[in-house]
Structure formats: structure tokens, C-alpha cells
Design brief:
506 residues; 3-stranded mixed beta sheet
Length: 506
């Protein structure tokens, strides 16, 4: 039975010993994260063989620490001990990690890690050369290894369900699928109506040439404005934007397209949301579940909240447009409304997920979700992925990729073997709408504060309701505590109905 309070003298020795073990294996994982960041940002091209061995060794060491007999013995010892609520949450999270890791042979863990490192380099080359055949053997190996991984954990369940739990262990897959289905039912007809709309948005506001160096300067200023702590982070360039780190050192990357300044802007703000979550985790709990984020749906809610509800808002463009025009005088005639319309346009022909508009983005997710489910189930051969991908893009989005670089090779996730990851993007977007609605109700004139560049209240609200809890609460409970309502798509549907109904005169 869990209680709410205890003093230091009452903390069981087994609990302290378990925490010490968790801190050790999390330190190994954190070190591997830095090496992975380096591989994607700084490492010379020839470094892959050594990096593969390094990451495989660290992965093996972490697995050894998690699955050691001592970990299981400590968990058994604590099974009937009276713990505080926080202690019980820590034990719950460590127990989940232990049980999954203990089911997987260490040799398989090493093989998956090595395969990921090698696949990453192959993916980079394949994407640059538009050559799926270069990546296909690595994707095939990942599919086989992850089927084996899922079977080791639970041979009696859908392997995709088991893999999904690596990224979202607290939401049942059927709940996730129900939310995704509601998004499809809402967005498909809405997008069709938008494409038939006669609304004339200022979609050409940011057309022209925007040099990369100036875009990077602007990105750094935007990060300063919204509150990124450069003393605990940095901004770099990578082929696929990502965030890596913890509450002491959390780094973001973006990428630049000299014909599309909005792409880098939105990617940068998106990654800031991830970083701000990590940097807001309790420093004193570093290395324990109370100092770790609550999995990927919640993590994605933070990035999508900043990207969509802040970065795409009228209020933010009231703040940003004068600065944007200082960096790029070619846009000096643009109004706030022009900028707002441009950043919220719904594209008819966008093939790239990370550059997608706020609505069609979710169809990009659905396509990936369906393909990887078929791959894991053995219903789709790896060699048929490009054609299946292109067919689904034509069916769902009315467009067909001309090459695999802008098609099935565009995302990095399968190079890491991350099957089950993609649904968390849409789940996070839905959660972001629910959290932002609650924050707007609790913060007086939030939009006005954003327009004035005052983000303190929003930072505080997110810290109080999400960041400070680490992994203490499971996903549904965290959302209920933060918003007062069960996790659902209701707030998201209301948000897009109102926003895009106004923009496109629906």
C-alpha cells in the first residue's frame, strides 16, 4: 500500500540500492545518447565502424545492469514494502523496464544496437543518392530483429503492440488507434473541403531566397525569445531535426532550406518544446524515473504545443514578424495576417512530413503507421515498401513521390528500428491541444502575453502540470490531473474546426 509521506530514515535500504542501480544504467544510456548525437551532428563520415562498436558495448552494459540478478532481487524485496506514492511510482517504472529487458537476450540487444548504427549510415547514403536498395537490407534486418525482440517479450501478443509499448507503455494500442481513427474521420473531409474552398490565403508571403546563415541567426534569436537556455543546450544542423539530452544538457538540431524559411522556424520551435521538457525535469531526480520524461506521446505534446499553438498563432507572429523582417527585408510588406495565413496554409502537394501543414501532417503519420504494421506482421515485403508508400500517398494525399528520397527514405526512424514510434506524433498533437486549452483557461490573457513576448506563465504552467512530475504519473492520469478531463481528441477537433473553419470559410 502506498502512502504520501516518509522521512529519510524510513527509506528502505532496498529502495536506495535500486535507485543507485537505476542511476548507473541511466548514466550509461545518457552517454550513449551523446555518442548518438555526435554521430548525427559532428562525427566524420568514416567513424561508423568504431561508433557501432562503442554504442553496441554501451547498450550491452546497460542491459546487463538492468537485468542483473540484483535488480530482480531488489524488486522482489520491495514487493510487499509500504512505500510512498513517489517511491511506488519509481518501483513501478523500474519494474516495467526490468521485466521487458530481462525477457530479451543480451546478444539480441547488442545485435539491434549494432544494426541501428550501421543502418543509420546506410540511410544517410541512400537518402542522399535516392537509392532505396542501399537501405533495404538494413531495413529487412531491423524488421527481423524487432520481430524477434517482440516475441521474446511476449510471444502471445501482436508484435506491433509490444513494440508500441517501447514508446508509449501507458496507453493501450486500442486507445491510440481509436484516437487516430477519430483524426482520420475529422481531417479527411475537412481537408477535402479546404481544397474546394475559394478562400484566398496569402500563401506566397514567404516565397523567395532566404540564405541559410541568416536563417540560423534568426533561429537562435527565436530560441532566445521563447526561453531556451543556451547554457544547457546548443543548436546544430542535422539531416533530420531532433533533440537529445537531459535536464543539464539538452541539445536541439534543425535543418535549413533556402527556399522555405518556415521549415527551419517550425522545426526549431518544435525541437525547443522537446528540449524545454527535458530541461524542466527535476534536477535532483536525475537518473531516476522521477527525473525522466513520461514517454513519447507526452514528449510530443510539448513540441507540438510550442510548434502549433504558439509558433503558428497570430499572437506569436505579432511578436516575431518585425524581427523576421529585420533579418529578411524582402518580406517588409507582409502583415501579421499574411504571416498567419502563410504559416497555417494547408498544402495540396507537400510530400515531406516534417514540412507538412498542421492537418495533412496526420495523414503522413497514418501512412507510416499502416506500412510498419504490415512490415512487422509480414504482410508487406521490404522490397515493396517504395511502391506501397507511393500508392498510399496518392490515395490519402492525392500526390505521388517522384523519388524515394522524398518518399519512403525521408524519415530517420526506421534506420533506428523504431517501429511503433510514429503514432506518438499524432497522439502528442491531440494531447497538446488539450493541454493548451487548459493552460489558456488558467492563464489570464495567454494570447496577449505571447504577443508581448512574455512566456513565463506558460513555462510555469507546463512545468507545474507536466515537467516536474517526470514519470510519476502514467499518461492518462497525467493528462487528467493537468486538464481535469480524460485524454481524448475533443479539444483537438474543436481547435482545428474553429481555426481552419475561419481561415478557409468552411
Amino acid at each position: 500500500m502506498a502512502t504520501n509521506a516518509t522521512n529519510a530514515d524510513d527509506v528502505p535500504d532496498a529502495y536506495e540500492a535500486l535507485l543507485d542501480r537505476a542511476r548507473r544504467w541511466n548514466s550509461v544510456s545518457s552517454a550513449a545518447g551523446v555518442l548518438s548525437w555526435d554521430q548525427q551532428v559532428m562525427m566524420p563520415e568514416g567513424g561508423t565502424p568504431a561508433r557501432s562498436r562503442q554504442l553496441s558495448t554501451l547498450s550491452s552494459l546497460e542491459h546487463e545492469l538492468v537485468t542483473a540478478d540484483e535488480t530482480g532481487e531488489l524488486l522482489d524485496e520491495l514487493e510487499d514494502v509500504d512505500l510512498t506514492d513517489e517511491q511506488a511510482a519509481v518501483v513501478r517504472e523500474i519494474s516495467r523496464e526490468y521485466e521487458r529487458a530481462n525477457a530479451v537476450p543480451q546478444e539480441l540487444v547488442e545485435e539491434i544496437s549494432e544494426a541501428s548504427t550501421e543502418a543509420l549510415q546506410a540511410w544517410e547514403e541512400a537518402k542522399a543518392e535516392d537509392d532505396f536498395d542501399t537501405f533495404a537490407p538494413h531495413l529487412q534486418k531491423h524488421v527481423e530483429l524487432k520481430r524477434e525482440y517482440a516475441e521474446a517479450i511476449d510471444p502471445d501478443r501482436d508484435p506491433y503492440e509490444v513494440l508500441f509499448e517501447d514508446y508509449e507503455p501507458c496507453l493501450p494500442l486500442d486507445q491510440a488507434e481509436s484516437i487516430l481513427e477519430e483524426l482520420r474521420e475529422t481531417l479527411v473531409p475537412m481537408i477535402a473541403d479546404i481544397r474546394e474552398s475559394d478562400a484566398d490565403l496569402a500563401v506566397d508571403t514567404f516565397e523567395g531566397h532566404f540564405d541559410e546563415e541568416t536563417q540560423e541567426e534568426l533561429s537562435r534569436e527565436v530560441l532566445d525569445v521563447i526561453g531556451y537556455d543556451f547554457e544547457r543546450g546548443r543548436l546544430d544542423v542535422s539531416s533530420h531535426p531532433f533533440t537529445s539530452g537531459n535536464q543539464f544538457d539538452c541539445r536541439v538540431t534543425t535543418r535549413f532550406d533556402e527556399s522555405d524559411p518556415l521549415g527551419a522556424f517550425l522545426s526549431t520551435v518544435h525541437e525547443f518544446g522537446h528540449a524545454q521538457y527535458n530541461l524542466g525535469l527535476p534536477a535532483e531526480e536525475y537518473g531516476t524515473p522521477l527525473g525522466e520524461s513520461r514517454d513519447l506521446s507526452v514528449h510530443e505534446s510539448q513540441s507540438r504545443l510550442w510548434e502549433n499553438h504558439v509558433g503558428r498563432s497570430r499572437a506569436f507572429w505579432e511578436l516575431l514578424l518585425p524581427t523576421f523582417q529585420e533579418y529578411f527585408p524582402s518580406t517588409e510588406d507582409a502583415t501579421v495576417e499574411d504571416a498567419y495565413e502563410a504559416v497555417n496554409q494547408v498544402y495540396e502537394d507537400n510530400l515531406i512530413r516534417v514540412e507538412a501543414d498542421e492537418l495533412t501532417y496526420h495523414l503522413h503519420i497514418v501512412i507510416r503507421f499502416e506500412i510498419e504494421r504490415e512490415l512487422i506482421a509480414g504482410e508487406l515485403d521490404v522490397e515493396d515498401v517504395p511502391e506501397a508508400w507511393n500508392d498510399k500517398y496518392e490515395e490519402y494525399l492525392g500526390i505521388r513521390p517522384e523519388n524515394d528520397a522524398e518518399g519512403c527514405l525521408q524519415d530517420i526512424h526506421w534506420a533506428h528500428g523504431n517501429f511503433g514510434y510514429f503514432p506518438t506524433y499524432s497522439l502528442g498533437s491531440v494531447m497538446a491541444a488539450q493541454l493548451y486549452e487548459a493552460a489558456s483557461e488558467d492563464i489570464d490573457d495567454l494570447e496577449g502575453k505571447i504577443a508581448e513576448g512574455d512566456f513565463d506563465d506558460l513555462h510555469e504552467w507546463l512545468a507545474d502540470n507536466v515537467h516536474q512530475h517526470g514519470s510519476r504519473y502514467e499518461t492518462n492520469e497525467l493528462v487528467k490531473r493537468a486538464t481535469g478531463d480524460d485524454f481524448s481528441a475533443d479539444a483537438f477537433v474543436d481547435y482545428v474546426d474553429e481555426k481552419y473553419g475561419e481561415l478557409y470559410d468552411l
